[in-house]
Amino acid sequence: FSSIVISCPSPPASSWNAAYERELRTFQDIGDAGEIWFGEESMVRIIRWLEKQKVPLDSSVLDIGTGNGVLLIELAKCGYTNLTGIDYSPSAIQLSEKVREKEGMTNIKLKVEDFLAPSAELSGFEICIDKGTFDAISLNPDNALGKRKQYVRSLCNVLKPEGFFLITSCNWTKEELWNEFREGFEILEELPTPKFCFGGRIGNSVTALVFQRK
Predict the structure, then answer these.
(1) Please, what sign has the CA dihedral across residues 179, 181, 186, 191?
(2) What region holds the Methyltransferase domain (predicted)?
(3) What DSSP element (H or E) covers 41?
């Protein structure tokens, strides 16, 4: 049943910058960009969906909580040309800039932005992608409910009407995510994700959905 999802831990907000500082040092030392959230298959799943839908390569794409920016690198390698990544951690953006520079991808824009308080210029995107950022916000011990609601408001502000929102989560089921985003969005598709069996019931280790803004 899709109601089973393995919960994945998320460090407190205060530790994110320290984590990316460590990854930045590692990249500078040995050229390792660090962890890919949900693994490489999560990026393949997103790219395959965009290709299946024949999303134009010049569509404006926003990666929310870009981290090391590896997803944007893979999108650029597939020919996408209008890519933006944001993260509230300055160290994450420094890391993603280093990775971008190493890969020679000049068409990727990177910005330090708090998605819960986005700047006015962060708007008009046709595609928004989230791999774990909504999970991290949801686990914030300081007013998580209010932050989730603000996330949805921010998403409505930055995503064009009829734009697509692709989210990958290890803390929320399909039904729970639909409940969170039902104001202003409709579910288009549930993307296939790895399954597991527990107590005779079959579930998903992560949930991947495509929403469309109304």
Answers:
(1) negative
(2) 60-189
(3) helix 40-52
DSSP state of 122: S
Report yes or no: 209 and 182 within 8 Å, Cβ to Cβ.
no
User: What is d(CA 212, CA 185) in angstroms, rounded to the nearest whole number?
Assistant: 5
How is residue 84 written in tokens?
């933006």
More confident residue, 193 or 186: 186
CB 75 within 8 A of CB 61: yes
Contact predicate 95/85, CB 8 Å: no
Give the C-alpha separation, 202 to 200, whole Å. Answer: 7
With a cut of 50, say whether residue 54 has pLDDT above it.
yes
pTM for the full model? 0.83
3-state secondary structure of 136: helix
What pLDDT does 3 receive?
42
* Other beta carbons less than 10 A from residue 157's beta carbon: 12
DSSP 8-state code for residue 86: E
| Alpha-carbon span 5 to 122, nearest angstrom | 32
Nearest to 69 by CA among 129, 12, 9: 129
Burial class (CB in 10 A: 0-12, 13-18, 19+), 151: buried
Answer yes or no: is pLDDT of 198 > 70.
no
Superfamily of domain 13-213: Vaccinia Virus protein VP39 (3.40.50.150)
